[in-house]
Amino acid sequence: MMKREPIGTAHVKAPSFRRAAESIRERLNGAGLTIFAESDWTGSGKILYVACPFLLLEALAFDRSSAVFLPVQVTVLATKNGAAVHWINPAALLTVRLPIGARRPITTLCARISKAFAGDSEPHC
After folding, report:
1. How far apart, in whole angstroms, are the C-alpha atoms of residue 87 and residue 35?
2. Separation of alpha carbons 97 and 94, rounded Å
3. Phi, psi of 78 (to 5 degrees)
4. Is the pTM of this model over 0.85?
5. 84-102 confidence digits (pLDDT tens)
């Protein structure tokens, strides 16, 4: 069984940060994920708040406190040739005890984020 890493990373190559960000949005949408909100850092980075509505409902059905961990924050930072992408899987952190019913939806969500970047430089989560 493969150990889940608490931090997922990927790199998206593109001629500009704008195009890399567009590619990241397309990949996440293609993986059936929804970007609920976005924070912009004056052209040098973004934070995308990513979740799947069904996984969000599943996590919140047992305990509303799961909302602290969802949606997952995907950080997108400009690089010389595209963008670096990072996200944290709270279900893989040893120091975090998740609310009842949240572990599976959060793990599944991070796995889907990883799968969205599967063709890139060894993403993991």
Report:
1. 14
2. 8
3. -65, 140
4. no
5. 999 988 877 756 677 778 8
Q: Tell me how far apart the alpha carbons of residues 33 and 51 are, in angstroms, rounded to a whole number.
A: 6
Q: How many beta carbons lie within 10 A of that of residue 3, not counting itself? A: 6
Alpha helices per DSSP H over 1-125:
17-30, 53-62, 103-116
Q: Residue 92 carries which side chain, given as an amino acid letter?
A: A
CA 74 to chain centre: 4
Residues in the chain: 125
Half-sphere exposure of 32 (CA within 13 A, CB side): 11
The tens digit of pLDDT for each residue in 1-34 reads 344 567 888 889 999 999 999 999 999 999 999 9
Answer positive or negative: Cα dihedral of 95, 3, 78, 112: negative
Judging by DSSP bridges, how do beta strands 45-51 and 72-79 pair with one another?
antiparallel
